[in-house]
Design goal:
The structure holds two protein chains of two kinds.
Chain A (H helix, E strand, L loop, with lengths): L9 H13 L7 H17 L14 H4 L14 H9 L5 E6 L2 E2 L13 E5 H6 L5 H6 L8 H9 L4 E5 L9 E7 L5 E11 L4 E10 L5 E11 L4 E9 L6 E10 L4 E9 L3 E10 L5 E10 L4 E10 L5 E10 L4 E10 L7 E10 L5 E10 L5 E9 L3 H8 L5 H17 L5 H20 L7
Parallel strand pairs in A: 1-5, 4-6, 5-7, 6-8, 7-9, 8-10, 9-11, 10-12, 11-13, 12-14, 13-15, 14-16, 15-17, 16-18, 17-19
Antiparallel strand pairs in A: 1-2, 3-4
Chain B lengths: L20 H9 L5 E12 L5 E11 L3 E5 L6 H9 L4 E10 L2 E2 L5 H7 L1 E4 L11 H15 L7 H14 L4 H5 L8 H15 L3 E5 L7 H14 L5 E6 L3 H5 L4 E6 L2 E6 L2 H9 L9
Parallel strand pairs in B: 3-8, 3-9, 6-7, 7-8
Antiparallel strand pairs in B: 1-2, 1-4, 4-5, 9-10
Helix pairs in contact in B: 3-4, 5-7, 7-8
The chains are: A alpha/beta, B alpha/beta.
Bound molecules: adenosine-5'-diphosphate (ADP) and magnesium ion (MG).
Magnesium ion binds next to helix 2 of chain B.
Amino acid sequence: MAIVTPLKTAAEQQLVQQYADSKAELPGGPAVRKLREDAFAGFEAKGLPHRRLESWRYTDLRTLLREARPLADGVAVTAAVKARLDELKLEGLRLVLVDGVFAPELSTLNAIPEGVSVQSLAEALVSAREDLTRILAGPSVGNDDMGLALNTALMRDGVFVAIADGVELEQPIVIVSLASGEEERAVFHRSVVLAGQGAKGSIIEVSEAAGTAAQQINGAIVFETADESEIQHVRLVTRQQGATVEVQSLLATVGAHAKFDSFALVANAGTVRQQHFIRFAGEHSEIGLRGVNLINKTQHSDVTLIVDHEVPHGISRELFKTIAGGESTGVFQGKVIVRPHAQKTDGGMKSNALLLNDGATMFNKPELEIFADDVVCGHGATVAQIDGEQLFYLMARGLPRPQAEALVLQAFAGEAVEFVADENVRELVMAEVESWLKAREAASEVSTV
Amino acid sequence: MVGFVPTIHVFLSNAQVVDARHRAEHDAAEHWTRTMLEIRNLVVKIADEDKQILNGLNLTVNDGEVAAIMGPNGSGKSTLSYVIAGKEDYEVLDGEILLNGENVLEMEADQRAAAGIFLAFQYPLEIPGVATMTFLKAAMNAQRKARGEDELLTPDFIKAVNSAADKLGIAKDMLRRPLNVGFSGGEKKRMEILQMALLSPSMCILDETDSGLDIDALRIVAEGVNALRAKNRSFLVITHYQRLLDHIVPDTVHVMSNGRIVKTGGKELALELEKSGYASYGEAA
Ligand SMILES: Nc1ncnc2c1ncn2[C@@H]1O[C@H](COP(=O)(O)OP(=O)(O)O)[C@@H](O)[C@H]1O
Ligand SMILES: [Mg+2]
């Protein structure tokens, strides 16, 4: 029998209890059950990720989660949830999760395009799909991550979307994940998107709170995209409570001659850890990972990614822009791995941060692990203040300082936003950026470094 | 805030004075040739260095006057223009800068712009990601707001820009690019004059606008500037060479050396300098 290491913190002990209490009713057949068991065994051995682990160095989940909140287990369709869904401007097939549970009655299931199938994750987990556990596991580079392992053990629901070969979506598929926020809850959800050969389309994920209670959110989305597919993923983490702790994992396995792009905006959130585990499974593909992090007050945004060039002729680009004010903390840890036979890899990684005052902090850690000799890879990381010369130029033309700063900051963020391919979505993202900057301008906040 | 805000509206390069009400009130109380800009005993150092650059500079520019400042490299010409425009990297140790009788040293750069100061930069800044048109509109509206006027309507704005751009030979596709990004030196200078035309300032400072311009561009830019000359608009034309002053003929010429105005004369002084050089004013030959 395995010896279980005693877990130290209250939250860890509570998680053990929660898993024991709920594992019988969490969805899944024997194979999924085994997946959960293995994942949880890993957690029991290692505990919550903490700062002594390189990949969690700047986001110490063990300290952040003093207590594990009760697991959310039902759909709470509150007035606030409905109101927020009414306001949401995104067009396309809408799939709604409330507290991590799929809510078909709030989704627009009559708008499912031809060639697209949608199930709840709970349904998919009990299905007889043979490839289910392989799909759920995602790229191997994420396998020892305990944030993800907890998701695997405790995932309750989500959506399982399959886009058939050759299908080109005219409108995005929008997965809206709302926290009802009446009470403090822990939410574990996972969604899966399978894109068939030559499939094209956008998947938008929105993670927001409708209510005011802080949440512990652990979300994951798994992409498996086949050869010649072109998939865009956009994630908006906005309108979360400041005390909410959110871990979002993005897993992608990308086929040959394919394009996969992901863009994530974090604005007006609490503590957000995004982790991307991305694998090139086929040659001649292009992967782009980008994002904008707008943080203020004591907010915290961590983007940690691993891109695994397992095959030759892959192109990867990463571009993250962080604007940090108040006492906020930004983190970028990017690792690009080029395996020994992955010749002709072309990788470029950039993280740029602007600090708006002395209280803000940015940790940048780009890394290349290159085992092939015929590759072109580069990275750049900058931490700077708003350019005083640019500001003076704009002010000398009559723009008051807050407005001049907003213009410079908007341009800075815009360099990443412009990669969002869908025009409507791009405009929505830019509008979110502008409203964040407007709020700052209205408060007459100006940089003080 | 700004005490005196000129409400002189000049319609682009036609220099038509639409409303000189405030100015008229001012004029009534003063001598006929009013002083636009008066600088008294200006002593300036670099803010975070022990390096003094302006050493008790005195200068007066009257209404409608075109004053040239000539001087060797490093004499402090750009510093003077920055300090007038309100750049923060400098510390004013002594002296005053009065615009229409009001000390501007307490004002932020945007307030000085609203008060009528315009600096055409020696090295205009590139601002990636900011569309030129977005910037022009923001600048025009910011100044209108400071004067308590409504925002420009978009069609009026576009008309104004197009007309001014035409006169300066600025191609439409330049206006579609991010501000100054990838512009040639000459294009950047034209863009400065375009902004000057659109913002209708009363005190225009041109810092080495001639550098980087070929002779045709120089002529176009000079015509643009000349078209803006008006009774209630003054110019401080900073240049190292006499060439620009063939095209923008100054009323007065000041020689600057070692952070001071050391000689003042008429336009013939520029020709003199062209011949003798700055050697006698402290520049190594
Ligand atoms: N921000 C600065 N920091 C350090 N030295 C400066 C700065 N600005 C100007 N200077 C110095 O001050 C002197 C005057 O410069 P400047 O005003 O640019 O002269 P000009 O425009 O007449 O060539 C030069 O010696 C220059 O190197
Ligand atoms: Mg100079």
